[in-house]
Design brief:
Number of helices: 7
Strand order of the largest sheet: 2-1-3-4-5
Largest sheet: 5 strands, mixed
Strand content: 15-25%
Distance between the termini: 52 Å
Number of strands: 8
Radius of gyration: 17 Å
Shape: globular
Order of helices and strands: HEEHEHEHEHHEHEE
Low-confidence stretches: 140-193
Structural class: alpha/beta
Length: 193
């Protein structure tokens, strides 16, 4: 039995199962929270196989950042599958879907919207970590179409903004108390006050 088979076999009743060399552990957190927490704790996950309930591009970016070796998703988006494959990570799924839907069931998951225009796993992880931080602070998290913004509200392509600047609370251009969405055009937009 492979590590991926073991992780898949122990996923039932949990949101995430990770396995390496036959040893496995599970997590029951919601969404991408377990992987964000494990990455934040600097857990050595390189070489683990992961089985997850839902794998979209956001989760795929976290798996790539963590060095996960193989991924199974009960539900996997086409974007998540493509991202994993582009990074040489074998993946399997129960159901392949066009998009990961939000919890209300009335649109695309905001985490998926936030990373849609990103290719770099490090940048994706930073954006997702900021979203989770802002949600804990009770700040609005939303992705909106770029057509409602005036040109001066656009700060430039995400890849042109240094990672340190996005994470540093003291940088006036990108204060942490505001969330900046990368919409379909790939530009950062200021949201909220």
């Amino acid at each position: 039995m492979t590590d991926l088979d073991t992780a898949k076999a122990h996923l039932s009743g949990h949101s995430l199962c990770l396995c390496k060399d036959g040893a496995w552990f599970t997590d029951d957190g919601r969404g991408i929270s377990p992987m964000l927490r494990l990455i934040g704790e600097n857990r050595g996950l390189r070489g683990y196989a992961a089985a997850d309930i839902i794998v979209g591009k956001a989760a795929a970016m976290l798996f790539v950042k963590a060095g996960i070796a193989a991924v199974y998703g009960e539900v996997m988006s086409k974007a998540g599958k493509a991202y994993l494959e582009a990074h040489g990570i074998p993946c399997a799924f129960g159901t392949l879907t066009e998009n990961i839907i939000n919890r209300k069931g009335d649109g695309v998951c905001p985490m998926e919207q936030a990373v849609a225009a990103l290719d770099d796993a490090e940048a994706g992880c930073a954006v997702l970590r900021d979203i989770k931080h802002n949600k804990k602070q009770g700040l609005t998290v939303a992705a909106v179409p770029c057509c409602i913004f005036e040109k001066d509200n656009c700060f430039g392509k995400l890849s042109e903004v240094p990672l340190r600047a996005r994470l540093d609370k003291n940088i006036s251009l990108l204060p942490r108390r505001r969330w900046h969405a990368a919409c379909d055009c790939g530009y950062l937009h200021k949201i909220g006050q």
